[in-house]
Amino acid sequence: MEPSGTQGVVSDFSRDKQVFGMPWGKAMMWIFLLSDTFIFSCFLVSYMTVRIGTTDPWPVPSEVFALSFGGDPIPLILIAIMTFILITSSGTMAMAVNMGYRKDRNKTFWLMAATALLGASFVGMQAFEWTKLIVDEGVRPWSNPMGAAQFGASFFMITGFHGLHVSAGVIYLMVVAARVRNGFYEKRGGNYEIVEIAGLYWHFVDLVWVFIFAFFYLW
Amino acid sequence: MAYVAIADRDHEEEHHDPQTFITKYVWSQDHKVIAIQYGATAIFVGVIALVLSAMMRLQLGFPDTFSFITPENYYQFVTMHGMIMVIYLLTALFLGGFGNYLIPLMVGSRDMVFPYMNMLSFWVYLLSVIILLASFFVPGGATGAGWTLYPPQAIMPGTPGTDWGIILMLASLGVFIVAFTMGGLNYVTTVLQARCRGMTLMRMPLSIWGIFMATILGLLAFPALLVSAIMMLLDKTILTSFFMPAISSMGADPGYTGGSPILFQHLFWFFGHPEVYIVALPAFGIVSDLLSTHARKNIFGYRMMVWAIIAIGGLSFIVWAHHMYVSGMNPYFGFFFATTTLIIAVPTAIKVYNWVLTLWEGNIHLRVPMLFAIGFIFTFIHGGLTGLFLGNVTIDLPLSDTYFVVAHFHMVMGVSPILVVFGAIYHWWPKITGRMYNETLGKWHFWMTFLGTYAIYLPMHYLGFQGVPRRYFAMGDTDFLPASAQDLNAAITMSALFVAATQILFFANVIWSLTRGPKADPNPWDATSLEWQTPDTPPKHGNWGHDLPEVHRWAYDYSVPGYADDFIPQNVPADVAPAGRDHGVEH
Lengths: 219, 587
Description:
The complex is a heterodimer of chains A (219) and B (587).
Chain A: H1 5-13, H2 24-53, H3 61-64, E1 66-67, E2 74-75, H4 77-101, H5 105-136, H6 149-181, H7 193-218
Antiparallel strand pairs in A: 1-2
Chain B: H1 21-26, H2 31-61, H3 71-107, H4 115-134, H5 165-193, H6 206-238, H7 261-295, H8 302-315, H9 331-343, H10 345-359, H11 368-391, H12 393-399, H13 403-433, H14 439-466, H15 484-516
């Protein structure tokens, strides 16, 4: 007799052998992402604390991050493009996962390659943005001509840490994509769950960007 | 798409037993070898930290006597002693050591789910230890900022070790967190996903529950320490102002502006309080198993013990600011954090009552592990009760900067977990090494350590009531303190040196056992849990021989009425022996 109600929930969760019907790597990636969530939360909360704590004026993000294509500066245009690119890459990643489970190695490879390319272009635009801030605006981690020193410090630290995540993700995706193509996983039973595991990481990095976008650029 | 659990697969992946000495004992991916590597490294740094504490006590007991202990040295000893004991010894030993050894054996698995990552975890941990110890030898020496590393003083000139010591300390912590994450992900995933048939979560021994929950706490709490270490490194090296307010140092302006030192305290204690339970929960779990096994009784209230572990783990994330009552905060926050802090006493008290009730009318065998387990109940109740004082804002304010806090902390988080560490080492020693230890030496070790620690810490509470301030290098002439306070300090130092020297008995026992200890029975304590049922002692690579074990009952079938033996191992089928109170539902 199996119990029902809350007792049933507990006994289902605590059943023998395994809690989740998923591969070890996937379970582990979920737990890692939970841990990583706490890292980014701590970064963002710290940034908010120093931002509301500092007495120097905080630069207006829509002006600092505006870009002119000949005419009037368009607020946040570069960030908007970067966000669009990253979210698009989540779309191609989701399609790659789908193709992986259909064991369509060719399409999986190309979709993953497209995802990695979009990710790399995101990092490239971030490098452009950093260069503009450092060279043109004179923003440094320890000082900021427009006001609070914490603006530069938080910006470089948080976008830098996120950029490292994206870069690591690009490398991860390229390794997995290459292995999909050369038949590495065929020799191991033809199982493409690794594509989904890499996808989990990639979607997480995108999601984090949405929070950085909201809290750093839109605030 | 259902995923087939490892216990249900027809053919498991082939095992490639390591062949060479190097792959067997150095670059080993076997969880048992990694556990011993972790344990030995942790105990090695622990001995260094013990020597540091002896130096501190020499200074406190006999000021103006030892010319080789300068005020700078003293603060470096305090800092390194605290950091090593809390993180590099206790966290690494409970999770990297016992977690690694016990999890696969107790849940019926062949190894951790990702052995290669598990191996990396140890080597990265070793790297963090090397970086930490290197800070003794760099210009300016190790950091003397106190183990909490509060800015601004942690990175400002005037504090010892602000040249390189603090940088190496922060770097070492970052590396340690990477190592812990690689190990911790393995432990959690193994417990969740790689158990054998019949091993439900509600049949797991409480040791595993404690280690499992502590690892989850670590994975969620260490991020705060990592972030604060990164930000302080930036403040120190490239003059960002996360934690540093506008400040003048020795007449000069170091260039900081507008940061928040309190922010560091919040981040640090958001890590620091769960860290207390990262150390305590494995101790709770292990001590439950030691008491049950050596009292020949099922643990009292198993289900409540599990829920208490989960509740303590959850609550531990919303009490952190009780470390900051004297830092200054909104009185309503103090009220909130005092309330949550005192609520933790409820699940903790449930556990203590259940330990005592497990002993009630038990068939108690006072072997060495049992002595340490019972000793733990004493020291833990003692340290827990003083915690009720310090959890209240109004009582904490006058006591916070006195030796009362030192005594409370060392009772609850120093002595108590260390007693469990020793109990656990004696308990599992026959399984790990295949040899018995010397019972008499072990008993001497226990009694001298147990009574000796009381001789150290009981008088320290009294010093705290008198108002003796902690952190001071020497008290000098202080009007409100009677001269006898110094006599008491000298007595405490004598006890501390005695207890430190007593630990030689432990190492003597280790050497005795390894050289001439008698061969151990596979199950010398007649215990029920799976690690005692392995085909080989010590267990070989792969743990279980050809077939994985199957579990048919919980881990506490001791003295079941109507059965000849007073214990029924977990892998004995239900039609062979009756089950006691069981909580598992097989699917």
